Amino acid sequence: MLSLINPISTVEFLQKTQWVIDPVGYMESAAKEYPDIFTARIIGFNSSIVFVNEPQAIQQILTNDRKQFSAPGELNGILRPMVGDYSVFTLEGDRHKKRRQLVMPAFHGSRMQNYGQVIFDLTTKAMNSLTPQQPFIAREVMQDISLQIILQTVFGLYDGDRCQQLKRLLTEMTSLFTSPLSSSLLFLPSLQKDLGTWSPWGKFLRQMEAIDQLIYAEIAEHRAQQDPDRTDILSMLISAIDEEGKSMTDVELRDELLALLLAGHETTATAMSWALYWIHRLPEVKEKLLQELQSISDRHDWMSIFKLPYLTAVCNETLRIHPVAMLTFPRMVEEPVELLGHKLDPHTIVLGCIYLLHHREDLYPQANQFQPERFLDRQFSPYEFMPFGGGVRRCVGEALAQFEMKIVLATILTNYNLDLSDRHKVKPQRRGVTLAPAGGIKMVINSI
């Protein structure tokens, strides 16, 4: 095995603490000593973990024939309290493959065009509710937009009591993990104790119970009123049948829907917030975007907007410099294997480190600078640029996330005049298992 970053037991505790409190600093300091691969002890795993950020090694991990590396769902247990045992996050093997085949059609093809008007309308509604000259937190507004989009695309919920209750409960539940300290609840099972409504975990469990009641009610209503013309994802999943002729149970639907709801709005909201930050921090980027958007004669031609090269480059550079997911889903060594000259034993857990990969100077010169042009000048491989992960556990909602991000940004830039209300540099910090902008990015709308 490789050497630990700090193989002293007392320092091991400090490693685990730093991983929760300052994951970026943790990864960057480790990479200075071990640039491509290193072993570490982090909270959430009972054994040493191998971090890898060299592209060819990541490709070897993610594209093997399952003899060298597997992707067991049990290693994603940190997400189980939220998404259960039957979502794409926690299933494995053939069951995972079949579930992906059921879910993937919801995020491709003509459905994207159908979502365009929904995204535009919800963005406009949220932005029109802001008060000119009054500062707001960009991430809060982006989360409101993204949550409404995912509720409409997943459930077909446009308004009403159930929609409002789900919005409130999901927002309250995710807000429990907004800081590194509160995020430790997910990493430390010893803290996951129900000590009543006043305790953090007790509050979380009661919020999940309330969310479950609403989701099961929505499933029952969809089953009772099946309509072949409905385009929401829940209707599609209810009618979907696998190759054995089986449909999904209510519990399976619940787990999958929660996975889509949580992963589908939290991550996208963070990415859009970072994009707004860089666009308004760098005037030349904003000017180039506005010029490109003016080339679209029909402002509701969503697919033309989606294909704009500079807008795409800005979104890609945002996801590069600030990947929301720091790591790939874990892989386990199945047989003795050599990786970058190091021998790994069976049962070793390996993680592709997306954050360090995206900050490699040999791939991205001046990696800490926001330069969208790098994506116009070069085509990066799926193992050099991988904001949505890779292999069998690549994000199923990637297409919708990219589409949503571009339409929201285009709508805001075309119709509203924003500015940063705080010019200080914003740093990423842990938000649950992801990275988000510290403070949420303070902005002001100058005019509507």
Structural account:
It is built from 18 helices and twelve strands. It has one domain: Orthogonal Bundle (Cytochrome p450), CATH 1.10.630.10. The strands form four sheets. The chain has a five-stranded mixed beta sheet, covered by helices on one side. It has 448 residues and is α+β, with helices and mostly antiparallel strands.
- For the record, the CATH architecture stands as Orthogonal Bundle
Question: In terms of per-residue confidence, which ranges show pLDDT below 50 for 5 or more consecutive residues?
Answer: 1-10
CATH first level: which class? Mainly Alpha
Largest sheet: 5 strands, mixed
Question: Helices and strands, in N-to-C order?
Answer: HHEEHEHHHEHHHHHHHHHEEEEHHHEEEE
Helix content: 40-55%
Strand content: 5-15%
Distance between the termini: 59 Å
Number of folding domains?
1
Rounded mean pLDDT is: 86
Shape designation? globular
Number of strands: 12
The secondary structure category is: alpha+beta
DSSP summary: helix tally: 18
Q: What oligomeric state best describes the polypeptide chains here?
A: single chain
Strand order across the largest sheet:
1-2-8-5-3
> Can you identify the CATH superfamily?
Cytochrome P450
Rg estimate, integer Å: 22 Å
